[in-house]
Input
Amino acid sequence: MRDQIVFDCPEDMPIGILMVTKDEAIKCDVSTRYNQSLIGLCTPERKRINFVVRDFSLLPNVPIFKEGEEYYFI
Output
C-alpha cells in the first residue's frame, strides 16, 4: 500500500484539504475538527498537494490507512 493521492489546487484562493468522516463529508461539515484533520494547505506558491497512502507513519499526527477501509476528503 503506497498509493498516492494528488490534489490540484485552485490558483486564486488558499484552501485546506481535510480528511473527514463519512458523515462530515455528506454534510460538508468540518467546523469542529479543522486543525485535527488538515492534511494539506493550498497556497499561491503550492499548486499541488501529493499525499502518500501508507499503513504506517514515520511522523506523529499523520493518518494511518488500512486496506479495505473508506476515507473521505474535503
Remarks:
- Residues 4-68 form one domain.
- The mean pLDDT is 86.
- DSSP finds two helices and five strands in the chain.
- Residues 21 and 71 are 7 Å apart (CA to CA).
